[in-house]
Design a protein that fits this description.
mainly alpha; 434 Repressor (Amino-terminal Domain); 6 helices; 66% helix; globular
């Protein structure tokens, strides 16, 4: 049985949830992560999913591992496999 594709729309939710948990503005997160404010706004709105480098910077800024950051994607896959 093939592994289902992750729902990349969840990336927006993951990003917004972590940003709110960290209580960071877009400007603060841009400064800490080294990503542009526009990139962060695009991720927040779902217009851009980012790449591995983007999410590594975000995981560092949120002080979590990449596995922790992407846990909701993994949980969704597990539900789909069932």
């Amino acid at each position: 049985m093939p592994i289902p594709e992750p729902d990349l729309k969840l990336l927006r939710d993951i990003f917004n949830s972590r940003r709110h948990e960290a209580d960071m503005t877009f400007d603060q997160l841009a400064e800490v992560s080294g990503l542009s404010r526009q990139t962060l706004l695009n991720i927040s709105s779902g217009r851009y999913n980012g790449d591995l480098r983007t999410w590594l910077k975000l995981s560092s800024a949120f002080e979590v591992t990449l596995d922790e950051l992407f846990a909701p994607l993994t949980e969704e896959e597990q539900r789909a496999i069932g």
